[in-house]
UniProtKB/TrEMBL annotation:
It comes from Rhizoclosmatium globosum. Small GTPase required for proper nuclear import of RNA polymerase II and III (RNAPII and RNAPIII). May act at an RNAP assembly step prior to nuclear import. GO terms for biological process: mitotic sister chromatid cohesion; protein import into nucleus. This is GPN-loop GTPase 3. It comes from the Eukaryota. Residues 231-253 are annotated as: Disordered. Belongs to the GPN-loop GTPase family.
Amino acid sequence: MTHCQSVGRSVHLVNLDPAAEHFEYKPSIDIRDLITLEDVVEELQYGPNGGLVYCLEYLVNNIDWLEDQISSFEDDYLIIDCPGQIELYTHFPIMKNIVSTLSRMGYRTCGVYLLDSQFVQDVSKYFSGVMSAMSAMIQLEIPHINVMSKMDLLGDRANSYELERYFDPDPALLMEDANKDTSPKLHALNRALVQLIEEFNMVSFIPLNIHDEDSVTTVLSHIDNAIQYGEDVEPKEPKDMEDGEEDDDVIDY
């Protein structure tokens, strides 16, 4: 949000997480104005996971609410913060239905999957992250960017050559590491996972350090390219010079 505002981009935060409590920026649209996880758990006696699914299904069943809310920002850039529960992207059609609604309204969407950089310290966790990202990509069927977040937490290792194989997965090398840390009984499973990753060849990661302006710019440029942001906008005609002052030529996105 800060970066977008600094470059003069009109951007709004949309919160679709009914369990969210703290925001660095106030959402312009908030699902909690429609339904909250706290109310569902209290009134229906659902657990946290079941309650979250119920809230998102409720949103889909009342999708006109979201359409009305979003229509107020039809010319703006929207960052939609979604729940992190992976089942919503791999087991249920909930998020796919929401994406379809956005597409029907004329919005170009890009999925951004965030994988914590700490996963590279455990190859088994990294494999699970790659598989989850791939499942979401297949399910949503939209332009998709995978981001390895919190790179600043890796310290000096963040710039090491060793991490390159995690950004663009080298399954053969990663399988060697996984086999070192797992029982021989699981080596066949590791091999099957590697084969699956190689066959689809879909997942790669862009590193993100939110404290590095260049890193943020790189990620945003990939997203802009995925949705072809601004490519269909014609330059505005310069206003007539008034009072002896010249107006700059601008492209208004």
